Each structure stands twice: as structure tokens, then as C-alpha cells.
Amino acid sequence: MKKILITGSKGFLGQHLVERLKDHYELITPSSAELNMMDVIDLHNHLSRSKPDIIIHLAAVCGGIGANQKSPADFFVKNSLMSLNVLSMSHHHKINKLITLGSVCSYPKFTEVPFKEENIWNGYPEETNAPYGIAKKSLLVGCQAYNEQYGSNFLHLIPVNMYGEYDNFDPDSSHVIPALFKKLIEAKENNSPSVEVWGDGSASREFLYAGDCAKAIHLALEKYNSPDPINIGTGKEILIKDLVHVMSEVVGFEGEIVFDSSKPNGQPRRCLDTSKAEKEFDFKAETSLKEGLEKTYNWYINS
Hints:
two-stranded parallel ribbon, 10 helices
């Protein structure tokens, strides 16, 4: 049974991935206290002891628009450090396969929809999360550089916005779905007449259930061995204003939705072309948005 080190295994996506892979591989799942990915010596020593065959690098510093605006340097430097360390140590320790995760934030602000992998270099990312997006884009460059120079098997998957059980519901750092759920649930509990939402609701997003992303990683692990990046998503977008109404139905909140147009929308549209993932390793998202939202909501209120 092959040994896989999963960085970020205690995080949101990591818990979904561990659940999916635990019966197929010997998993190494250190916490951030047990393995500091920003310390190359710590990573080197851990790999010397654990001797994995494969690394799946999920560890990242990430968050919503507010968190990105508050700490752009942290998002850039910490993610860049982790990227450099995992690339250099995967090469040094002769890891058979490295799977890295990028971000839809790496795409240019104005990208033809749906986003195709070859469009990633056609402009600068949306300003509110550009430092994070560029740090993740450098990880793609690093994978391709090691593959070209050393014949490494380093992969780069680009997932769209994710949600699901185990997500971060901290209002200071969460992404759009958990942030909205928290607002709607609190408004319902407090009998509030309205909920305020950042932006004017006109931006569109594509959302991927984290369990489906775990499935994509599993398929790429077994079937994909190419330096070319691959989008991971559903290929379906929804306006934020429509998303809020769907989520209101799930929560049972019947008050007014007030959009604060003084707050940023972020990137105008996000929707991925996911045909390459289906062609290369038969990935297709299975979970509908409504089903995934209900799973997320039920987990949160029962946790």
C-alpha cells in the first residue's frame, strides 16, 4: 500500500480527502503543529522520517475577500513559502508524485467565460485576491519547471470555489457560502428583518462541493501524469443574488436581503471549463448545489 502525505489534512478539504482515501492508501496526516510547511528544515526532517511515496499538498493560507484585503502580504508570502518548500523537498526526497492545488483566483480579472486552462496567463488577477492568486500561480510554474528540468511528476489542479462540511465559518476569514450561512442562521434565530450581503449581487460564482473535489484528486492520483494544469469544478455558475435566495430557502430565513454596493463584488464572473478533467481522468462533479448546501447546513447546525 502506497504511503501518501497529505499536507493540510486537518483542514476543510483535507478531511474530505482523508475520508475518501483512507481505505486505499496508507495516509500520513500531520497537523500544522506537527509539520510546519513554512519551515523547510521541519519538512525535510518529517519526510526523512515518514518516507512517503506521494505528497498531496493542500495546506494553504486562504480566506474570503475581507481576509485577503486585510492581510495581502501574509497570503502572498506564506503560500509562496509553502510552495517553494514542498517543490524543493519533493524533488530532494525523490517523491514519486506530487499533487498541488491552485486557485481560481489565479485567473485574470477579465477572463473569457468559461475559463480555460490556457487563459491563466492572459492578464492580472482580480485585485482583492491577487497576492494569493499569484502565489498559487507560482506553484504551477514550479511544478512545470521541475517536470521540465528533472522529469518530475508534479501535478497542478485548479479548483473553483469550494464549500461543504468542515468549512471555516469564522466571519473574519470565511469564504462566501459559510459567511452567508452564518448571517442567515443568526438572522433567523434573532428574528432579524433583513440580512446584509457584500456587493450588489451581480457577480457570478461557480461552487464545487468539497467531496467532489476529493473525488477529482483521487482520480488524478490514479490516472493523470501530466504537467498541464487542469480545472476542477462543475462548469455551472450562479449569480450571488440567486445564491443568497437558494441559501435562504435552505435555512428557512424569510426576511429581506439587502445588498451593500459600497462593498467589493470581487471578480465579475467565475466559471470554469471542466472538459479537460472529464477527458483526462473521467471527473465530473456529482453533487448539485442545492444538495451540497443542504449537507453543509445540516453539518453546521449539528456540529
